[in-house]
Amino acid sequence: MIYPKPEFKERYENFIGGEWTKPVDSQYFNNPSPVDGNVFCQVPRSNYKDVNLAVEAASQAVSIWSKTSATERCLLLNKIADRIETNLELLAVAETWENGKPIRESLHGDLPAVVDHFRYFGSVIRAESGEVADIDAQTVSMEVHEPLGVVGQIIPWNFPVLLAAWKLAPALAAGNCVVLKPAEQTPSTILMVMELIADLLPPGVVNVVNGFGSEAGKPLASHPKIKKVSFTGETTTGRLIMQYAAENIVPVTLELGGKAPNIFHRSVMDADDEFLDKAVEGFVSFAVNQGEVCTSPSRALIHESIYDDFMARCLERVAAIKMGDPLDLSTMSGAQVSSEQFEKIMRYMDIGREEGAEVLIGGDAFENPHYPNGYYVKPTVFKGHNKQRVFQEEIFGPTVSVTTFKDDAEGLQIANDTLYGLSAGVWTRDIHQMQTFARGIEAGRIWCNCYHVYPTHASFGGYKNSGFGRETHRMMLNSYRHTKNILTSY
Ligand code: NAD
């Protein structure tokens, strides 16, 4: 089935204080689709003046929203979830058009997860009960939570709606008001979501300001009235965000880059066919979302004793990845998000070859007969060693760099030989080995005998240069609120 091209407005505005608001300086930028390379809408090129308006609107709203009951917040989050669910197909098609990801992922992966996120945090806040402790016969200690106030949220382009939901749902559940800045590459689908839910939101509770990082993101992250900055994006930008937030002594959550190892042990080849097929799928998941995933298993570590057999199966499976029209449900790999991202990935193809990595498959652009001007790259497998740049740097494209290891000690050493620590995959039938690797790898999410599974009630976040703070899971509510202790003597 091929979905028809979505319809967008020619021009979108910012959403501030419950109103669609033109940028103060009347500047807009063009938003091209990576699917065909053509501009399909214009979006405000906001600056500090627009950010100030949005923060002001949120500051006014916070005095009311922060006093709402858990039941009211739960109700709103559920209504938002219902509205998005009703319009799932519309939004999935829009997201595919603006981001390039295949419709099978936006329709069956991203958007359902968005809905689940709002429902989950609605349930969690409603079900929460406080902590009360008897200190002695006359004294009771109570832990109570209070919202932080106005929070600034800045997101990248690889999951334009899901990452917004990851941030919005818990912040609202905890009683905060939000100013959100989407990525300049993918502003439209989240604006469509705002159009769908605008009538549900009390004015000022959620505000969306569009624009570029230095012009709209920086004034948001450094605004003196912002009480927290939650950022997802590149590690280099994360460093700047910390500096801006330091000026105001406000907390930050940083979800940054990754270079995940995916480790295949000897027992993978001894297992039954079902397990082996699953492991091959795990390897191939480097191409999910065209590799534009922070957790992408972009380094594969394969035990030397199974390398030839296992690799042969993996390469056969990579060759079967169907490229084509991203709006076709049978397409498995779509377009890279932008011409810049396409060029960056192609540069890494050259870098890999120049530093001696062998290209086992791919290594080139894909000429898409449907869209000759879109940004398509063939899934690519490099063979080399962990010191090469294609093993160390985040390419953020459909590439995996493969190497071998001789024993557990060497496997662990290579896995941890990276600046990043977001995620890892471990494939083995040996439970002891699984634990050794799961505990030994310095990363926030370890997938054992699976990959790219993101339940809302499992925590997610990084070690090392992949950032700090957690998203998803109810534990992260506390990063959106103060904990106050009230100690009472009777
Ligand atoms: P990016 O850092 O270039 O941009 C992310 C956002 O930050 C955008 O909205 C951008 O406009 C804004 N920004 C840029 N410079 C800024 C500045 N000086 N001040 C304030 N805001 C600024 O990242 P990207 O290229 O959009 O996204 C890809 C990166 O995101 C990859 O490194 C990927 O690993 C990471 N990522 C991490 C996670 C995670 O959960 N750890 C999830 C998705 C993506």
TrEMBL record:
Gene3D superfamilies: Aldehyde Dehydrogenase, Chain A, domain 1, Aldehyde Dehydrogenase, Chain A, domain 2
Leading EC class: oxidoreductase
Alphabetized GO MF terms: aldehyde dehydrogenase [NAD(P)+] activity
Highest taxon of the lineage: Bacteria
Keywords of the record: Oxidoreductase
Enzyme Commission (EC) number: 1.2.1.-
Matches recorded under CDD domains: ALDH_ACDHII_AcoD-like
The keyword Oxidoreductase belongs to this UniProt entry's keyword annotation: yes
The keyword Oxidoreductase belongs to this UniProt entry's keyword annotation: yes
Active-site residue list: 255
InterPro entries referenced in this protein's UniProt entry, alphabetically: Ald_DH/histidinol_DH, Ald_DH_C, Ald_DH_CS_GLU, Ald_DH_N, Aldehyde_DH_dom
Domain Aldehyde dehydrogenase: 20-486
Family the UniProt entry places it in: Belongs to the aldehyde dehydrogenase family.
Protein name: Aldehyde dehydrogenase family protein
